[in-house]
TrEMBL record:
<keyword id="KW-1133">Transmembrane helix</keyword>
<keyword id="KW-0472">Membrane</keyword>
<dbReference type="Pfam" id="PF09719">
    <property type="entry name" value="C_GCAxxG_C_C"/>
</dbReference>
<keyword id="KW-0411">Iron-sulfur</keyword>
<dbReference type="InterPro" id="IPR010181">
    <property type="entry name" value="CGCAxxGCC_motif"/>
</dbReference>
<dbReference type="InterPro" id="IPR036280">
    <property type="entry name" value="Multihaem_cyt_sf"/>
</dbReference>
<dbReference type="InterPro" id="IPR006311">
    <property type="entry name" value="TAT_signal"/>
</dbReference>
<protein>
    <submittedName>
        <fullName>Split-Soret cytochrome c</fullName>
    </submittedName>
</protein>
<keyword id="KW-0812">Transmembrane</keyword>
<feature type="transmembrane region" description="Helical">
    <location>
        <begin position="113"/>
        <end position="131"/>
    </location>
</feature>
<keyword id="KW-0479">Metal-binding</keyword>
<keyword id="KW-0408">Iron</keyword>
<dbReference type="GO" id="GO:0051536">
    <property type="term" value="F:iron-sulfur cluster binding"/>
</dbReference>
Amino acid sequence: MDNSRRNCLCGLGGLAVGGAVAALVGTGGSIARAAAPAKRFEQVNGEFGWKPHKLDPKECAKVAYEGYWYKGYACGYGAFYSIIGVLGEKYGAPYNQFPFSMLEANKGGISDWGTICGALYGAAAAFALFWGRKERTPMVNELYRWYEVTKLPIYNPGELAQGVKGDLPSNASGSVLCHISVSKWCAAHKIEATSKARSERCGRLTADVSFKAVEIFNAKIEQGKNYKGTFAVQPAVSGCGECHQTKGNDANWAKGVMDCTPCHNGAEPLLNKFENHP
């Protein structure tokens, strides 16, 4: 490198460093925080810039069922597409520009790990494109609490059934976890988890979740910030929460608001005046 070029680069570097230091030095000569906002996480139209439009729950439930089978038992894909995809079909961009295949990862409780029910995640993810956490949380609470206590599946595609036709037995899972939801249904009705009937059950359940999620979606559009769900906090959560979710309590180390009873045997006696709680 020749001297003239070296001098030029050094001069530019000196100007850049000097300018940065000058920007940080206040009138008192101390180093101050940079005031410029970070640009990395900015999004077009803001964080939650998409406009919601009311949808028909029956139409969306059918799409959710079809989406479940289209991607091969993909409950998350079906539920998400039944909201965002249907908006795309009706209104175009930006809804139809989403990479929907991303939601396929949620099948089987996220790549067959049996964690959160993919259909529930798909619906919650759809809500998140329109509303921030504070406004979205009552919507998610309503959907998840409904899922815990409702006997599912309800939806019946009739002759359009792609797994098995006819009626299927139903039960209340008591849990939003795929592992518990599927296992309790299979055990209660003596049906193998790898059977076509179980796959059909999850396809119909995806439609059920979509139907309820769209009802909540529409109610949120109507009520705005005044939206509140109708399903109460589970008794086990209220009871256990007196110790395990109370600020300042030595036993305040529980995270989440899902029903405690499916995973914690101590929750049942706890509800009976806290007797025999370990």
